[in-house]
Structures are given as C-alpha cells and as structure tokens.
C-alpha cells in the first residue's frame, strides 16, 4: 500500500508538471474584457491593473499599482470621480470596437466612466506597459503610437516617464490632483499644474490660493528645488521641455531597482518617496512646503524669506516694511516698499544683489536667451518697467531673465540658489550694489 501511494503521488506530480503554466495577461480586447476579480500584469511583472475597493467603503475603482511591492500603492485611478457603487464583482472594464475604454456597473448595466477616445481603431487593444502606462492602440501599430494613454491623465502621483505640463499640439494639460482622503481617491482642492506664462514654473494650489511655487527651470533644476542636484545617488535624471509645442517636466531612473514617485497628498504636501526593499516601506525624504519660507509670498513684495533668521522676513536693500506694525509682529505678507523713487529717466538707478536666492515669481517675467548677464543688466536699465534681472540658465551661464512687475516669493538657501539683481535708486546703493 505504501508503494501504491508513493506511485500515485509521483504520477500526480508529473501530470501537474506537464500542464501549461498559467501566465497573467497584460491586454484586453473587445472580446476579452477584464472582470472585477481579474488583474492585468505588465510583461516584466512590475505593475498591475485591476479593480480595488478602499477599506471601509463600498465604492470600487479601476487602478494601477506596483505589482512587486507588498503594500498596495495606487499610482493611477481611472474613475476616481465616478466609482462603481458596489464591490469589485459589480465592475467590468471593456474596450469598444473603436478603441474606447469603458467601465460598467454590472448591477445596473450602465457605464460609469469612459476614456472617450476620439480616433477610431480597426483592431484595438489596451495594454499595461512595464513603465506603468496603460495604453490603447491598434494591434499592428508601433510601440509608441497610442490613441490614448493613462500617462496623459495623472491622478495624485507621478512615476518615472510620466509628465506634468501642457502639450499645445494635443491640447492636453497634465495636472496632478490629490485624493480627498486615504480611502477616497476622488479629486480634492489640491492641484499641481504647470503655468506657461512668462518663464514656466510649477504651482501647487489649494482651490484658487497659491500654496507653493517651484520657480523656473534654471538649466539644472527648478529654482525652488536646489536639492535636486543631490539626487544623483538615486540614478535619477530630470527632463524639462520648453518649446512652442510643449512645456513639461518629468523624471526617470536608470536603475530598475530604484522605485520612486512624486505624490501630492491629501494633507497639502508634494512629497518624493523611494521604496526601501530591506524594510519594505516608503521613505518620504522630501516635501514642500517644507518650512515657513516655502509658503507662497510669505514675505510679500520685495520681501526675502530666510528660514535661518528670526524673524524670517527681511526687506531687500533699498526697501522698508510696508506695514511696520505687522512687520514688528512677525507678519510679513504685506511686504516692502521702496525707500527712494527710481530715477530711470536720468539713468542713475543701480542694482543690489540678493545671493543664494529662489528667483521671484516669473509669471510676468521676460526671457531672452540671446543675452548674457552684462547685456541683461543693460537691457534692464534701458527699460523703466524692469525691476530686476538674473541669469536664465545656470548650466550654460547664459540667458537673460528680467522682471517687469513687483518681486514676489523670494527666499534664501544655505546651499544652492542664485543671484538676483534688484533695481534700486542711487541713494540706496551700498556694499551689495552692482
């Protein structure tokens, strides 16, 4: 009897070994939709797509998360503002004959979300790629010929290869919007978006209120994020595109073991996180606002915020507090005003240098890459509306950035920052003047 049992076990094992192994699929087609209890897994098993129901709720959403990280971390949600009112068994994802993705509530047989693809595809399929992008394309089309892609519609997270910014050709504005809570992925009032006015920069908004500003791209990093240059240890690279066709920011990593993301959280912070494989947790090592001086316009017009001083606000040389009473009470939002009126007509004005600074808001600034720093100074003096100038590109040491409005949202850094030359009257020139 012992021999018979052993033989049966060996036969069963052999039969199981001969059966074809099941592999997770990464595509759906018009004839193979995705039901609520199924998931798509990218070919290298880096990302998964499927339906999830947040703890303590009865709503179901279609999302993308890291497949090889135990803690489910959602990086994209399709129907964040149109959930299926039930558990995942009530949901199904399909793709129509013309290539539109559709999420249907099976209990009502009604669609709750659609990708609203405008182009008609002959043989459409939707595929989850290894970079976390969920794309719609023709079966026979090229690898980058997408009729629709999730990367064009971020939710609260940027992952490598995903952009934030505006594509003027496709009229797509990629913005990032925080979840309302840990269990509610619907859109909150916190939004991060690219402003293409003047010298482009990123803003973080709470409704209509500006919370934080990245500053313009200075050839190395955003002016308001000088610590970016230290991220070389993570094998991160950064891309800023500023052309007539597109203004966008993205990041990438050359090491596949480095898993990092940018998150706009529901508490009102933009955070960068990196996954620690040994302890299996996220390390949030950077966030903005990070200190009082990160808050937009903390010291008002012509005020400079220095987090290492108390009080943190001071006026640029040649300026004095606009509201001395509040200024003495450490409330600097009213900013500063000139001590002496400018005398542009007689050409007696000069400049004082603010070093190690985040440049002022560039929404109304002018950029001329044909000029160097000396030419920028001359051009600014000739323009009576010019209030300050600086280098536009620190990497090449060229380009002229000029302000033609009040200088707002300046701060100082212990390491990093750049020189800003502020226009003042001759009577206010001193040891920091140029």
TrEMBL record:
Membrane topology term: Single-pass type I membrane protein
Chain ranges of the Apple domain: 344-425
Signal sequence region: 1-24
Catalysis performed (reactions): L-threonyl-[protein] + ATP = O-phospho-L-threonyl-[protein] + ADP + H(+); L-seryl-[protein] + ATP = O-phospho-L-seryl-[protein] + ADP + H(+)
Domain Bulb-type lectin: 25-149
Pfam families noted in UniProt: B_lectin, PAN_2, S_locus_glycop
Coiled-coil annotated spans: none
SUPFAM superfamilies: alpha-D-mannose-specific plant lectins
PANTHER family attached to this UniProt entry: APPLE DOMAIN-CONTAINING PROTEIN, BULB-TYPE LECTIN DOMAIN-CONTAINING PROTEIN
Protein name listed in UniProt: non-specific serine/threonine protein kinase
Lineage per the UniProt record: Eukaryota, Viridiplantae, Streptophyta, Embryophyta, Tracheophyta
